[in-house]
Amino acid sequence: xxxxxxxxxxxxxxxxxxxxxxxxxxxxxxxxxxxxxxxxxxxxxxxxxxxxxxxxxxxxxxxxxxxxxxxxxxxxxxxxxxxxxxxxxxxxxxxxxxxxxxxxxxxxxxxxxxxxxxxxxxxxxxxxxxxxxxxxxxxxxxxxxxxxxxxxxxxxxxxxxxxxxxxxxxxxxxxxxxxxxxxxxxxxxxxxxxxxxxxxxxxxxxxxxxxxxxxxxxxxxxxxxxxxxxxxxxxxxxxxxxxxxxxxxxxxxxxxxxxxxxxxxxxxxxxxxxxxxxxxxxxxxxxxxxxxxxxxxxxxxxxxxxxxxxxxxxxxxxxxxxxxxxxxxxxxxxxxxxxxxxxxxxxxxxxxxxxxx
Length: 357
Hints:
Elements: E1 29-37, E2 41-49, E3 60-68, H1 76-82, E4 84-85, E5 89-93, H2 97-111, E6 123-127, H3 142-150, E7 169-170, E8 173-174, E9 176-186, E10 189-202, E11 208-209, E12 212-213, E13 232-242, H4 248-255, H5 258-263, E14 275-281, H6 311-331, E15 335-336, E16 342-343, H7 348-356
Parallel strand pairs: 5-6, 13-14
Antiparallel strand pairs: 1-2, 2-5, 3-4, 3-14, 7-8, 9-10, 10-13, 11-12, 15-16
Helix pairs in contact: 2-3
């Protein structure tokens, strides 16, 4: 497993859960398919299963938000309509969205052959990896999407150049996949808020870690800044998970706090970066169903934390997003890909020395 920011002595606010990962939320599973082949394939698929494979049809309350719409997250019209999410969520590269959408369908058909004919509106999100990856080469297949779902597990997960984050860049350094979590108490109960980030955003001059502006200090060796695309292009996808009982509207409010965590790392939100966020709650199991009617069905009920008590959960969102992005950068290793393009690793020893002085 990769070394994380805290292992270099960095301090972050808030109390982490056991693994400091989105998989601290009970039931959440994460799986990767990582594709590194030849000189120009640097891509993959990440699967996030809100309740694991065994309870894939049990809805979760959910909400979403787009800070900047130069990107894609499918299934959001249905999510807005019903406030619920049940199927695996996949994150990949921009031109593999359709393939991964089909992959979720293929997985459902293969895993549950007894199901009647039905419809599925999966959530698939993307960021652009065309600097390092041959993004037009159709290298991600539906089988790769199925494999990512089948590989999903709880426990500690890898970060950096894995899954959908394989070919991504962040603040002019090697980007990719990252995660973090926090514990939040509510009366005598304790809940977890976790984040998964696919980080492919930010220009070098913006980079800030724990309040220290590092862009000028680390200005050298910035091949992405010298490339044709505008600095800061790429996109960022964030998935927030919690076991706290929340309404769909409250989860949407949680996603609107994600940009505050991103901003702590320096970004001002590039026009060419699709910044799209999803949040779900695994509480209230059995509610928010949407089945074909078969006579009169029972009422459904939702228990939820009062709106006036949400500030600690908003704090947690900001904290986990900030730390997950920093974990991405600390996990990065220099990668060379398509046409010899190079994405340098963050010089973590130098950064840690500056930040811990």
